[in-house]
Each structure stands twice: as structure tokens, then as C-alpha cells.
Write a structure and sequence with these properties.
By secondary structure, the chain is mainly beta. Helix content is 4%, strand content 52%. It has one domain: Beta Barrel (Porin). The chain is globular.
């Protein structure tokens, strides 16, 4: 009003003074510290979603998968994919005693896993083999593997995932392997996986292997210890005379291995898997031990 007395020319605007005063507000600096109402510019934070009392069953990543699936749970059975953006290294040690005894065959494997967009995963391997304890360890195999999960976790029963692998060998024909991966949760603390496998040798006897693998594990200590059982069943055949492709296939064998599996996670990013499997059928190896050390970057 003092402004109007000093400037009479503003007198016609006097009726507007009251509405303007009611609308105008003095901003309290403390109000700036208050978060905006929900849905009005508040930042979105994506965290794991809790579905059980176990932290390893919390849903994580863009595919909504359980945390336990971000680490390998079984040695013979794969399942799903690791989360997008994840990188993991694994070292494998696999000594095997062939059927009927004989010289132990040892395989060491170095693997890098990459979580890709669109529910894909890329794995790169380099592999070495050794006959007995005295022979040299020779790096004679490289492998490339790609996986694709068909949907986000639990949108399809069994979380089916497609798997393709090419193994380039130095001294024997290359191998092609395809798999259909399944896995999930039976109930809290009980987890399972199963694979349907076809492997083909590209030359020589052109050996074919038709396999079924599976495993079940029980969590004993959340994100620390789990134990279970896994198996591998394979039907293998090859040509009786590789030089004559018209001959029917023969030299068939049936292999069944079964045994316990243990996983220990000493640190959140580290897992150690141990699976001593015993051969049940005459054609199966007498014994196969697999030890896996994994680290997530």
C-alpha cells in the first residue's frame, strides 16, 4: 500500500493486491531440505527384492533372478545366465580315472564369463590336458560358449535357456555342443538344475553324445554353504569304421556318474565348488573329481 501512496498511478491496480499477496509465499530455506513428493522428480533406486528369509534368494539384476544364480551352483549342470554387466573368472581342475583304472587324465580350464544385454552370456575358455603325473600339461583346446535365456526369471517354468558351444581342439576334431538349460527353486533353500545335451564330434569317428545332467542343492548357511547331489547320464555312439561313412553307427556306451556336490562361499564374490562323482556303469569313468574356483569382478 505504501507503494501505491508514493505512486498514485498504480491506484487502479489496488484490487489485485490482495490476490497477489495470497498467492505469493515466502520460501523457508528449511523447506528446500524436504524431499519432493513421490512421483515428482524423486530419484529411482533399484535394489534387490526380498522374497524369502535367505539373502541368496533375493531378486537382483535387470532379469529379476535370485542372487544364488549369479554363481555356478553345480559342476555338471548349467542354468540361466549371469546378470547383465557381470564379469566372472573361473578356474577348473578335473582329474578323472578312466573305466577299468589306468592313468589319471587331468583337465585344467580357465574361463571368463560376460553378462550381456538381452539375457545373453558369453563364455571364453582355454583348456589344458595332462596324461598321468609325469606328462606335460598341454594347452590344446579353446572354447566359445553363448547362452540366451528365453525370458526374465520365473516368467516361464524352469527358466529355459539356450546354450551353444564350439570347442576347437589341437590334436583331435573339433566338437559342437548344444544344450537346453533348466533351473529354479523347489522351495526356500532348495534349488535345482537340469540340462538336455547333444554333443557332436566334427571328424574322425564323429562321436555323438546324448546326455542328461541334473542336480539338487540345499542351502545350509545363507550365502555361505550348500550341499546336494548331481549326476550325469550319457549315451555315446560312433562310427564303426570312420573311413566308410555309409556304415551304421556302433561302439555305443552308456555312462552314469553320480555323487555329492558342495559349494562354499568364503567371500561374497568368491565361490568354491567341489563334486566327487563315481561311475556307476561299466563304461563310465571310475571316478571324476571337479573343483571350481570362481571370482566375480
Amino acid at each position: 500500500m505504501q507503494l501505491i501512496r508514493r505512486f498514485p498511478v498504480l491506484l487502479p491496480l489496488a484490487p489485485l493486491a490482495l490476490p497477489i499477496a495470497l498467492v505469493a509465499q515466502v520460501v523457508n530455506p528449511a523447506d528446500k531440505q524436504q524431499p519432493p513428493p513421490s512421483g515428482q522428480g524423486q530419484p529411482l533406486v533399484v535394489e534387490g527384492r526380498r522374497v524369502s528369509d535367505l539373502r541368496e534368494e533375493d531378486r537382483v539384476g535387470s532379469y529379476g533372478q535370485p542372487e544364488w544364480t549369479t554363481h555356478r551352483r553345480f559342476t555338471e549342470t548349467r542354468l540361466y545366465v549371469i546378470p547383465e554387466g557381470s564379469v566372472e573368472f573361473e578356474y577348473w581342475l578335473t582329474p578323472e580315472i578312466p573305466a577299468g583304472g589306468g592313468t589319471t587324465q587331468t583337465e585344467t580350464q580357465y574361463e571368463f564369463e560376460f553378462g550381456l544385454p538381452w539375457r545373453c552370456q558369453l563364455d571364453l575358455y582355454t583348456v589344458a590336458h595332462q596324461d598321468g603325473n609325469q606328462g606335460p600339461m598341454q594347452f590344446d583346446q579353446q572354447k566359445v560358449e553363448i547362452r540366451h535365456a528365453l525370458a526374465d526369471w520365473d516368467e516361464i517354468w524352469g527358466n529355459p535357456t539356450l546354450y551353444f558351444e564350439w570347442a576347437a581342439n589341437s590334436n583331435v576334431p573339433d566338437h559342437v555342443e548344444t544344450k537346453l538349460l533348466f533351473g529354479g527353486e523347489i522351495e526356500s533353500s532348495w534349488h535345482w538344475g537340469a540340462n538336455l545335451v547333444y554333443e557332436h564330434e566334427t571328424g574322425a569317428a564323429q562321436e555323438n553324445s546324448y546326455e542328461v545332467t541334473g542336480g539338487v542343492s540345499k542351502t545350509l548357511v545363507d550365502q555361505r554353504w550348500s550341499v546336494g547331489v548331481e549326476f550325469k547320464l550319457a549315451f555315446v555312439n560312433s562310427k564303426t569304421d570312420p573311413s566308410d561313412p555309409s556304415l551304421h553307427r556302433g561302439n555305443t556306451s552308456d555312462e552314469l556318474l553320480i555323487g555329492p556336490t558342495v559349494q562354499f562361499r568364503p567371500l561374497p564374490r568368491v565361490h568354491i565348488d567341489v563334486a566327487p562323482l563315481a561311475g556307476v556303469t561299466a563304461d563310465a569313468p571310475d571316478f571324476k573329481l571337479t573343483v571350481v574356483f570362481g571370482y566375480e569382478f
